[in-house]
């Protein structure tokens, strides 16, 4: 059974969390280290292509786009996911919950679409090595990248403007575990 929590109940659940528990802090520290590696690694990929003109190939445009999507996941999604996963409570408020879910869907969809674009690029390069440079030019690659970012945004946009399951509130729902930020498909 799902019960909508009021502000007092939410505050009480937050107060029950032991933010000084050593086990939880170690878990959060390990996740923070992974997040820092994600951020640094993707920044290095972007910097390498930006700094070296020899690396500015069509394929590397797709790789940079993938690195940007993964960097945004590392910056805007993973820190909040780690905190939620470790402490089992959403402490960042209703508005950020909705934004976090949208950014999560947007960046993960962009990452998946970038992988598809890389696959398409490699397929064309292998199956049509002679005509590949004329098929996938720098301009077409940039258009494809812009298109996949727009498509990924279109996919994440409807929940932001209110198109979601009316039976399930996005925040302040409890179903056995102290969680505040649930998607409409979350069954916990």
From TrEMBL:
The UniProt record lists the keyword Transmembrane helix: yes
Q: Name one Pfam family in it.
A: 7tm_1
> Can you say where in the cell this protein is located?
Cell membrane
Q: Which GO terms describe its molecular function?
A: G protein-coupled receptor activity
Q: Which residues cross the membrane?
A: 24-49, 61-80, 100-120, 141-161
Q: Which GO terms describe its cellular component?
A: plasma membrane
Task: Check the record and name the SUPFAM superfamilies matching this protein.
Answer: Family A G protein-coupled receptor-like
Q: Which residues form the signal peptide?
A: none
Domain of life the protein comes from: Eukaryota
Topology in the lipid bilayer: Multi-pass membrane protein
Keywords (A to Z) from UniProt: Cell membrane, G-protein coupled receptor, Glycoprotein, Membrane, Receptor, Transducer, Transmembrane, Transmembrane helix
| Annotated G-protein coupled receptors family 1 profile domain residues | 41-188
The family this protein is said to belong to: Belongs to the G-protein coupled receptor 1 family.
This protein is called what?
Answer: G-protein coupled receptors family 1 profile domain-containing protein
């Amino acid at each position: 059974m799902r019960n909508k929590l009021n502000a007092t109940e939410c505050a009480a659940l937050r107060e029950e969390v032991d933010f000084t528990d050593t086990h939880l802090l170690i878990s959060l520290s390990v996740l923070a280290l992974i997040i820092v590696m994600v951020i640094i690694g993707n920044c290095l990929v972007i910097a390498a292509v930006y700094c070296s003109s020899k690396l500015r190939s069509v394929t590397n445009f797709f790789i940079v786009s993938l690195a940007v999507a993964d960097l945004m996941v590392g910056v805007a999604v993973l820190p909040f996911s780690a905190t939620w996963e470790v402490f089992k409570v959403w402490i960042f408020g209703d508005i950020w919950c909705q934004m976090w879910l949208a950014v999560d869907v947007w960046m993960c969809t962009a990452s998946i679409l970038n992988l598809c674009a890389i696959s398409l690029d490699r397929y064309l390069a292998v199956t049509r090595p002679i005509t590949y440079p004329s098929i996938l030019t720098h301009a077409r690659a940039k258009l494809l990248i812009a298109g996949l970012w727009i498509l990924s945004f279109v996919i994440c946009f409807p929940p932001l403007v209110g198109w979601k399951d009316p039976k399930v509130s996005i925040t302040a729902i409890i179903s056995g575990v102290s969680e505040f930020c649930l998607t409409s498909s979350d069954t916990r």
